[in-house]
Design brief:
heterodimer, A: 310 residues, mainly alpha, MetI-like fold, two-stranded antiparallel ribbon, 3% strand, globular, B: 274 residues, two-stranded antiparallel sheet, 2 strands
C-alpha cells in the first residue's frame, strides 16, 4: 500500500530541529563524553586531568569504603522508591476518579514550586532535636528528652519519599486517568474481589505509568547527596556524596567522573531490570489484549506525552 | 445502593496531602515566630520586617532564581516546540538523533548532568606535547551557566509534551492550510502553534516548576553566584538558617498558590475556548 504522502513539498524538518540538535550536542552530549573520557585519564593537582591514560580513578573505587557507599546507594534508592510508589498509587487512583482533577493536580504540584532545598530545611525544622516534633512531645509531657529524629536512615528516607512523591503521582495519574474503569466493574461482576480486580486488571493496564514513576524516582535518587549531607551522617553517604567530595574536597575529578560512569551503568541496569520485568508481564498480559502494556522503553516518554496532551 | 464506606484511596490521598503540606505549614508558622531557634515563643513580624528592610542579597538571589526560571523556560519552550513540530511532520537525517538525545537525560541521574556541565564549563585544560589543549567551553560559573543547565534539563519535557499534543491532532488541517495557499510561516503561526498551545503551555509550566524546584544541577553550575537555593544551602551547611528565609518562603508559597489558582482558571478558559 502506498504510504500517505507527506503534505509538504519542501522539508523544513532539519530547520525546525536544528536548534535542539545543536543545543543538546554542545550542552549535553559533549559534556557527557568529556566526563566519560576524562574518567580514564590521570588526575592533575588542581582538579584537572593529565593527558595520560590511567585506570587510577576506577582503582580508587575498589575500596571497602566505596563498596559500603555503593550498597547504601542501592538499598536506600530501592526502599525509597518502593515506598514512594506505594504511596503514589492510591493517590493517583483517587485523583483519576475525582471530579476535581485539575484542582487536585494543582494541590499535588504546589509543594513542588518551593525549591527542594527549602523543603529539606523545613524537614530539618520538624525533625531537629529542638524541632517541632520534639518540642510538641516535650510540651505534652510525652517524653523528657528529645528523640534523635534527625541523622538517621528513617529521616533520610522520609525526605526522599517527600521529594519524589509528586514525581511519582503525576505519571501514575495520567495513565490511570486513561484507564477504562468499567473493566474494574466487569471484574467485580465476574466475581473478583476488590483487591483482585485492582491487582489483576488495573495494575497491568497502568504498567507504563508505574514504570515511569519508578524512572522518575529511582534514577534521581541514585545520584542524591544533599539529604544525607544535611540530615544524615557520614555513614549514610551515597555515591552522590562521593562525587561531591571528590570534586569539592579532594579535587580528584577523574574519580568523580568514574563514579558518574558507575552511576550511569547502575541507572541503566535498574532500567533494564524494570523493562525486562515489564516485558515478561506484558507477554503474560497480551492474552488480555490491553494497550500500553508492552511499552517498556517508551514508557517515560509516553507518560510525559499523556501529561502534555491534556 | 451501597452505603458510603471507608475509602482507602481517599484516605491515602488525604494522608499524602497532609504529608506534602505539613513542611510548608511549618515554614509559614515559623516565619511568624519571635524566636530564632526552632521553638515557638510568640507572634512576631520581625523576620518580615528584616526581609523587607535589610535582606538585599536574599532578594537578589530570589530574583536571580525567578529570572533564570523564566528565561530558561522560554528558551526551552521555543526550541522544544520547534523540534516537536519538525519531528512530527517531517522525515530528516537528524530525526533519530533528536529523538535519542532528548531521551537520554530522562534516564540519567541529574547529578550527572550537573557535574558534566561543570566539567565542560571548567574547560579542562592540559598540555599535550608542549601544546596547551582546551577541552570544553571555558565559562565563568554564574547566571549564564545556570540558565544553560536549566534550559537543557527542561527541553526534553517541552519537546515531549508538544509532540504528544501534535500526535492527537488530525494533520489534514495542515494540509488544508497548505492547499489553500498558506506559506510555511503562515501555517506555523496560524495553524500549528495555536493547535499545539495546550502542549506548549504545559511544557512551559513544567519547565518553570522544574527550574524553581531544582537544586542538584544548580549546585554544580552556579559557582559563587547566589541563587535562592544556594543561599539557603550555604546557611544550612554552616548550621544556622535565618528565619528571614522562612518569611521569604512563606511569601513564595502563598504567591505560588495564587498563581496556581490563576493558572487553573486560565487553563479552564483555554479548555473551554480551544
Amino acid at each position: 500500500m502506498k504510504k500517505p504522502r507527506l503534505h509538504r513539498e519542501r522539508n523544513y524538518g532539519t530547520i525546525y530541529a536544528l536548534p535542539i540538535a545543536l543545543w543538546f550536542t554542545v550542552f549535553f552530549l559533549v559534556p557527557l563524553l568529556v566526563i566519560i573520557v576524562f574518567s580514564f585519564l590521570k588526575a592533575d593537582v588542581d582538579g584537572g586531568v593529565m593527558p595520560l591514560v590511567s585506570l587510577d580513578a576506577y582503582r580508587n573505587l575498589l575500596r571497602p569504603r566505596i563498596f559500603r557507599i555503593f550498597f547504601n546507594t542501592i538499598w536506600v534508592s530501592v526502599v525509597s522508591t518502593l515506598i514512594t510508589i506505594l504511596m503514589a498509587l492510591p493517590c493517583a487512583y483517587f485523583m483519576a476518579k475525582s471530579k476535581a482533577k485539575t484542582f487536585l493536580l494543582i494541590l499535588v504540584i504546589i509543594p513542588f514550586w518551593t525549591n527542594f532545598i527549602i523543603r529539606v530545611f523545613a524537614w530539618k525544622t520538624i525533625l531537629e532535636s529542638n524541632g517541632v516534633i520534639n518540642s510538641l512531645l516535650i510540651g505534652f509531657g510525652a517524653i523528657a528528652n528529645p528523640l534523635p529524629l534527625e541523622h538517621n536512615w528513617i529521616a533520610v528516607i522520609i525526605i526522599n519519599v517527600y521529594t519524589y512523591l509528586t514525581y511519582a503521582i503525576l505519571p501514575l495519574f495520567s495513565t490511570i486517568e486513561k484507564f477504562d474503569f468499567t473493566l474494574l466493574e466487569a471484574a467485580r461482576d465476574l466475581g473478583a474481589s476488590k483487591i483482585q480486580s485492582i491487582v489483576r486488571v488495573l495494575l497491568p493496564n497502568v504498567k507504563a505509568g508505574i514504570v515511569t514513576a519508578i524512572f522518575f524516582t529511582f534514577i534521581p535518587l541514585l545520584g542524591s547527596f544533599v539529604v544525607q549531607q544535611l540530615i544524615g551522617t557520614k555513614d549514610m553517604y551515597m555515591l552522590g556524596n562521593e562525587i561531591n567530595d571528590n570534586i569539592y574536597k579532594y579535587f580528584d575529578w577523574p574519580t568523580a567522573y568514574a563514579i558518574a560512569v558507575v552511576l550511569m551503568l547502575l541507572a541503566n541496569v535498574g532500567l533494564l531490570f524494570v523493562m525486562k520485568n515489564d516485558r515478561k508481564q506484558a507477554k503474560a498480559a497480551s492474552a488480555r489484549r490491553v494497550d500500553d502494556v508492552d511499552d517498556g522503553p517508551r514508557a517515560p516518554r509516553q507518560a510525559i506525552s499523556v501529561a502534555g496532551g491534556r | 445502593m451501597q452505603k458510603k464506606r471507608f475509602s482507602f484511596s481517599k484516605t491515602s490521598f488525604i494522608a499524602s496531602m497532609v504529608f506534602l503540606f505539613v513542611p510548608l505549614v511549618v515554614l509559614i508558622v515559623f516565619s511568624f515566630n519571635a524566636n530564632k531557634a526552632p521553638v515557638l515563643t510568640g507572634f512576631s513580624l520581625v523576620w518580615y520586617q528584616r526581609l523587607f528592610t535589610s535582606s538585599r542579597s536574599l532578594w537578589n538571589a530570589f530574583f536571580t532564581s525567578i529570572t533564570i526560571a523564566v528565561t530558561a523556560s522560554i528558551t526551552a519552550t521555543v526550541i522544544g516546540t520547534l523540534a516537536a513540530i519538525g519531528v512530527h511532520w517531517h522525515k530528516f537525517a537528524l530525526k533519530t538523533y533528536v529523538q535519542a538525545i532528548t531521551y537520554i537525560p530522562l534516564v540519567l541521574p541529574e547529578i550527572i548532568i550537573g557535574m558534566s556541565l561543570l566539567a565542560f564549563f571548567s574547560g579542562s585544560h592540559f598540555t599535550l606535547g608542549g601544546v596547551s589543549v582546551n577541552v570544553g567551553f571555558r565559562l565563568n560559573l554564574g547566571w549564564l551557566t545556570i540558565f544553560i543547565a536549566h534550559a537543557t534539563f527542561c527541553l526534553p519535557f517541552v519537546y515531549l509534551m508538544v509532540l504528544a499534543r501534535l500526535d492527537e491532532f488530525d494533520s489534514s488541517i495542515i494540509e488544508a492550510a497548505h492547499d489553500l495557499g498558506a506559506t510555511e510561516g503562515q501555517t506555523l503561526l496560524k495553524v500549528i502553534i495555536p493547535i499545539s498551545m495546550p502542549g506548549i503551555i504545559s511544557g512551559f509550566l513544567t519547565s518553570l516548576t522544574l527550574s524553581l524546584e531544582d537544586f542538584t544541577i544548580t549546585y554544580f553550575v552556579s559557582g559563587v553566584s547566589s541563587t535562592l537555593p544556594m543561599a539557603v544551602y550555604g546557611q544550612m551547611y554552616k548550621g544556622g538558617v535565618s528565619p528571614v528565609i522562612n518569611a521569604l518562603s512563606a511569601i513564595m508559597i502563598l504567591g505560588t498558590i495564587v498563581l496556581a489558582l490563576l493558572a487553573r482558571n486560565f487553563l479552564k478558559y483555554i479548555a473551554a475556548n480551544g
